[in-house]
Specification:
This is Neopullulanase 2. Its EC number is 3.2.1.135. Keywords: Glycosidase, Hydrolase. One of its GO terms (molecular function) is neopullulanase activity. By secondary structure, the protein is an alpha/beta fold. The protein has five domains: 100 residues, Sandwich (Immunoglobulin-like); 94 residues, Immunoglobulins (Immunoglobulin-like), CATH 2.60.40; 359 residues, Glycosidases (TIM Barrel, Alpha-Beta Barrel); 51 residues, Oligo-1,6-glucosidase, domain 2 (Alpha-Beta Complex), CATH 3.90.400; 74 residues, Sandwich (Immunoglobulin-like). Helices cover 21% and strands 26% of the residues. The chain is built from 14 helices and 33 strands. The strands form seven sheets. It has an eight-stranded parallel beta barrel with strand order 16-19-22-23-24-25-26-27. It has a seven-stranded antiparallel β-sheet with strand order 9-10-13-12-11-14-15. Strand 7 and strand 8 form a beta hairpin. Helix 12 packs across helix 13 and helix 13 runs parallel beside helix 14. The chain is globular and about 75 Å long.
């Protein structure tokens, strides 16, 4: 049996059964209509960022290409004879009645046409019939074994419906429960004491046959959660646009601005604006409004009322722009924001109030005014910092992105060589400086563009200095490879908040927005896929968000309009729905400044873009939205289950989505959401459940109003 099990495991891993890595070979076929001369066809879709993938003509006259894709929905079009079909489901020129007969439908392409939609098939259906149970479990992978909340999480995956029950055998039997269900697989899980070292897994398959797997060894040092993150309410502060608490330092912004160092600069010179002045040219970068650290101190009572106990600061250090991502001095607070002494005072006050703080770190690139880059500008190859950057030619004009590598090819953001040991040591010293200064964690900008060997070294040294430091990487999609215990503790969880690739899944935002593709079944299945791919330790300290300084305002994304528009009651209801769902997820719930006021803001046209970063007009804060966020903050802190790392799928049908939080028998909450406009009924698990907002107890079923939500706590 063990030899057969190993063979099955090898086949499963080869096929990529593990959700985060699985791939299925999919053949796309274009069969031209009679009489159409076809010279070229390529496949372009959500899975390859709409790049060209040539298709080959077969002897039968059809065009084909095979692609390995993960399970889930994909959107695509065939690019035929250098033209896009307008509608992949109905185009008289390129196909009748449907361009791709294998498509399962079509969705709006955002250009007035229709993309084809296909659901990549179930992995379980791709497996050979071996006569054995396809159980996947590898204790050395954190996805299956990790530590959070003082317990070991042990999990395995099997094809959906393949087993009836499971038990983990160690010093005593530990029943394993079905945790996550998706179309292609399911995850079973048990929480164990830290004392367990060896174990076996015993299952009863759907035919009633008992099988035992193991023995397995718990890793000596399993990936462990930073437990203080669990259940936190996080607030993101973009300093220049939060509040101006000290107008005397406003003009300091002009002293180090990018235009002083960029010799290619032809735009408007940096300038100061009053707090309610409209967005002007270079609103993103060189229009300064005067927000500062004194403004944060002045508004702490607002944050306390929201239940905030985690603050994420956008860049605080000396730089050349309002956004601060072009660092000039990594160990000096930007003079326009205050100074190091004021930051020390602020951190001490936040610590006194029980608020943890993380700072934005930009190790991928510097600004033009950074002293190392300026040394290269002046000395060329004679500079000891020549190999800190990627210089293509010298001498060069600072700001000329053709002469050296810059982030996104921008000459204002010269890229650091993070594979250089000297650069690594420098950035590690900077990080240690700020941890010793009083910060509790670090968010790393564009983490996917930094040398992995640097991140591993950086993490090891910071964890040795401060084991409970919280390290977050800016990575926008599902990337478990960064979360194996050697790089980051969490990624910015846009995958849960806004969905990922393919765009047919929109995460919490997509569900709150509604529509046929964002039904409960699809979105809950996507959440299950994420929580199966990530270790439970990562879920416990997830940096969960829907919007940030890099996205449109959540309310705008939910139909609330642009910067100067008044949102409709329905848009505000959808914002309440989205935020309630965000707060119910394991880990920290993080929102961008102003979301709690129901502010709107869209992406504008360059150079007047990023209107979601407009200064907070506090006097226009919507009281009803603020009360909602204050309620969520209280509930996040009061509900014991929200401190748990455990997320379990429960029920999804139509507009309904419901999941369970907390350990069975210890404290459970059923979180339920309705993205439809009509009232629906929710079937409750066995027992009595109390709505934590209204205080009323329910049994068997409960109603959910249109665009409504409930947190229901199991009564003992």
């Amino acid at each position: 049996m063990h030899g057969l099990r190993r063979w099955i495991l090898g086949v499963l891993l080869l096929l990529g059964f593990v959700w985060a890595q699985q791939k299925i070979a999919v053949i796309f076929t274009y069969d031209p209509p009679y009489g159409l001369e076809v010279r070229s066809v390529s496949l372009r879709g959500s899975f390859n960022n709409w790049a060209e993938l040539p298709m080959q003509k077969t002897e039968e006259g059809v065009w084909q290409v095979a692609v390995e894709l993960p399970p889930g929905p994909v959107q695509y079009k065939f690019f035929i004879n250098g033209q896009w079909p307008r509608n992949m489901c109905e185009d008289e020129t390129f196909g009748t009645p449907q361009v791709d007969l294998e498509a399962q439908g079509c969705v709006d392409d955002g250009q007035g046409g229709q993309n084809a939609l296909r659901e990549v098939g179930r992995v379980a259906d791709q497996l050979p019939d071996t006569g054995g149970l396809a159980l996947v479990h590898e204790p050395n992978q954190p996805q299956f074994v990790s530590q959070a909340a003082g317990r070991l999480s042990v999990r395995f995956q099997v094809p959906q419906g393949s087993i009836q029950q499971a038990v983990l055998l160690a010093d005593k039997p530990y029943p394993m429960a079905l945790q996550l269900t998706a179309p292609d697989a399911e995850v079973w899980r048990a929480a164990l004491p830290l004392s367990v070292q060896m174990y076996r897994i015993q299952v009863v398959d759907r035919e009633g046959q008992e099988q035992t797997f193991g023995p397995y060894q718990i890793p000596a040092k399993p990936f462990r959660a930073v437990d203080w993150v669990a259940g936190r309410v996080g607030y993101q502060i973009f300093p220049d646009r939060f509040w101006n608490g000290d107008p005397k330092n406003d003009r300091r912004a002009l002293e180090t601005s990018q235009a002083r160092f960029d010799q290619t600069w032809t735009g408007k010179l940096p300038y100061l604006s009053r707090w309610n002045d409209p967005p002007d040219d270079y609103h993103c970068c060189q229009q300064y409004y005067g927000g500062d650290l004194a403004g944060v101190l002045a508004r702490l009572s607002h944050l306390r009322a929201l239940g905030v106990n985690l603050i994420y600061f956008n860049p605080l250090f000396d730089s050349g722009s309002a956004h601060g991502y072009d660092t000039h001095d990594y160990v000096r607070v930007a003079p326009r924001l205050g100074d190091n002494a004021l930051l020390k005072q602020l951190l001490a006050e936040l610590k006194r109030q029980g608020i943890k703080v993380i700072f934005d770190f930009v190790p991928n690139h510097t600004g033009l005014g950074h002293w190392a880059f300026q040394d290269v500008v002046k000395k060329g190859r004679a500079s000891r910092y020549w190999n800190w950057y990627f210089v293509r030619r010298w001498p060069f004009t600072p700001g000329d992105g053709r002469a050296y590598v810059g982030w996104a090819d921008l000459g204002s953001l010269p890229k650091l060589n993070t594979a250089n040991p000297e650069v690594q040591d420098y950035l590690i010293r900077v990080s240690k400086f700020w941890l010793n200064f009083g910060f509790d964690g670090i968010r790393v900008d564009v983490a996917n563009e930094i040398a992995p060997e640097f991140v591993q070294k950086w993490r090891a040294e910071l964890k040795a200095l401060k084991p409970e430091v919280y390290l977050v990487g800016e990575v926008w999609d599902l990337r478990p490879q960064y979360l194996q215990g050697d790089q980051f503790d969490s990624l910015m969880n846009y995958t849960v908040g806004r969905g990922g690739s393919p765009p047919a899944f929109g995460g919490v935002l997509g569900f709150a927005r509604g529509g046929p593709l964002q039904n409960g079944r699809r979105v809950l299945s996507e959440l299950a896929r994420v929580y199966a791919a990530y270790p439970e330790a990562v879920a416990a300290m997830g940096f969960n968000l829907i919007g940030s300084h890099d996205t449109q305002r959540v309310l705008t994304d939910l139909g609330g309009g642009g910067l100067r528009d008044a949102p409709s009651p329905e848009a505000l209801a959808r914002l309440r729905l989205a935020s309630a769902m965000l707060y119910a997820l394991p880990g920290a719930s993080v929102f961008f400044q102003g979301e709690e006021c129901g502010f709107t803001g869209e992406r504008g046209q360059w150079p007047v873009n990023e209107l979601y970063r407009y200064p907070l007009q506090w006097e226009k804060c919507r009281a009803e939205v603020l009360r909602h966020y204050q309620l969520l903050g209280r509930l996040k802190g009061q509900i014991k289950a929200f401190q748990s790392p455990l997320f379990r799928t429960y029920l999804s049908e139509g507009s309904l989505l419901a999941f369970l939080r907390g350990e069975p028998g210890v404290g459970e909450v059923l979180a339920a959401f309705n993205n439809g406009t009509e009232r629906i009924s929710l079937r409750l698990p066995e027992g009595r459940w109390r709505d934590v907002v209204e205080g009323r107890a329910y049994q068997a079923q409960v109603g959910l109003p249109g665009l409504g939500w409930r947190y229901l706590e199991r009564m003992q």
